[in-house]
Amino acid sequence: MSRIKAFFRHDNVGLLFALPAVVYMLVFVGYPIVHNIVLGFQDVDVMNFLHGQKHFIGLANYTTLLHDEVFIKSILNTFVFTISCLVFQFLIGFALALFFNLKFSIAKPVRGILMMPWMIPMTVTALMFKFMFSTKVGVVNNFLTGFGIISNNIEWLTDQKMAMVSVIIANIWIGIPFNMILISTGLTSIPGELYESASIDGANAVQQFFRITLPLMRSTIESILVLGFIYTFKVFDLVYVMTSGGPVNATQLMSTYSYKLSFDNFLYSKGSAVANVLLVILLLVGILYLKVTSGGEDIYE
Fold first, then answer.
1. What fold, for 69-266+274-300?
2. In whole angstroms, how far apart are CA 265 and each of 19, 35, 257, 260?
3. Which residue from 59, 60, 118, 152 could staple onto 177, CB 3.0 to 4.6 Å apart?
4. For the chain, what are the domain ranges?
């Protein structure tokens, strides 16, 4: 009892407030991750799942995946999807942030309206773009043919090349507000006196951007790119609703392929192995980010 009293005397009560969050993370995040890692080293499918037979097979699932053409394609598709979305989301978001950083009367209301794509549920957005990219009744084809840009309807979701373009466009639309608001926050932290001094010294807008804005936004940009990579790399619901990984695995990502193996083919262990590879890649990205940011801090010190 004396130790318990001593614990509460030293301002440790705050730990009790954090305890529910810790328990929640351990139960609903930690346990599924550990269970999925273990499952990736076992042989579990629909045939032996009900009997509780979970034979340990080591790296057999991962060895099989290395010879799986669809898995290799899903990795390439995931990187193409992620990098393409990341580049356009960041550039457009940065441009909008710079625009709304200008002082004009309707900047704040319009910026708030542009946040709507980020607030709409992902499945709703996926359904919306699925109808928009529909071949016959989609508004995109109707718009393009109406203005004479194309003569025949484009098979947005059924052509292998255009299907990837379609899901990339949809995800770019979702991610632009996220980039815009974070970059806008970073821009407001830059003292205005720096720009005034630069103007007095004769620096134009381009020089101010590359000599003041970008260097002072370095940490913000790094955080945005890493968070954007993580969020985009694990996208599932958008692609699954729009194309389900098709046509002919043209939009098959690691997340959708893991779902397909687990819940369509009932190969639970192989599906877990794909998810574990996805987890390892994201962990490496996170570790790389920590090293880069810590190295940057050392340089500035």
1. MetI-like fold (1.10.3720)
2. 39, 20, 10, 6
3. 118
4. 69-266+274-300
